[in-house]
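#structure-requests
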Amino acid sequence: MIEIRSVAKSFAAPAPPRRATWAGRGSGERGPAAGADAIDGADAARTPAREPRVHAVRDVSLDAPDGRITGLLGPNGAGKTTTLRMLAALIAPDAGTMRVDGIDVVARPREVLARTGFLSDSRGLYPRLTARENIVYYGALHGMEREAADARAQDLARMFDMTALLDRRAAGFSQGERMKTALARALVHDPANIVLDEPTNGLDVLATRALRESLRWLRTPEGGSKCIVFSTHIMQEVERLCDSVVVVARGRTVATGAVAELLAETGESDFEEAFVKLAFGPERAIAHDKNEHRVEPPRGGGAPP
């Protein structure tokens, strides 16, 4: 089970480029003004620095129980990846708490990582290693004996229909083959919790269907009743796969519930329309609806028929 409570995270904004000061304007001279750097330095010493911040996550909360798939849905830039990076103990939150099976992520990160399998959008495979070597190496990092990790790799290869890939180098894998290998690597230590960040990016229809079926099986008692958190910005994936949805926009959780509950809450029959209303507000939803039904005038400039 994964619990996130009111987490927030900001980063230092990139410094704007300095503008050069030029001397001798009107006299034909070119070059930086004499003493400009010294003057800038004196001004900086007199003025307290206020570092501009980018607030990637402002207030995100979610509950992901065992045996269910919880979707983290939001537009690009909503804060989904930053939230999951905090959950993976890669960066520390500025505020809030995160717990995995009751274990605090910040206080006991190694215990959390031992109970969680993470699949990032970048996949992160070693291209010169075979699929088997990638999986077994990751198992070794989790303290598994080589024989146990190899046996687990064989089981996962059968589960994901990738036995033919096991002894091929990852260099040259298709997106679907990379996804299968990365997912098997994330599950080699049989974690109770699985976190996937935009896992369908770049996948074709067949690879997406295969991933979907794998996740559905993993949430069943036969598959281990895994707790699965699935980050995406694709509405169709959420509708077809997720038991519950957490909608994130502008760094905040704005809605939580099953797809049917969110449709009822917004009074919509189409989930895309419901998402636009939840994430961007009624005004944007109305504008979106007008754009969808706008009639373009004919090229000749006359009135539409």
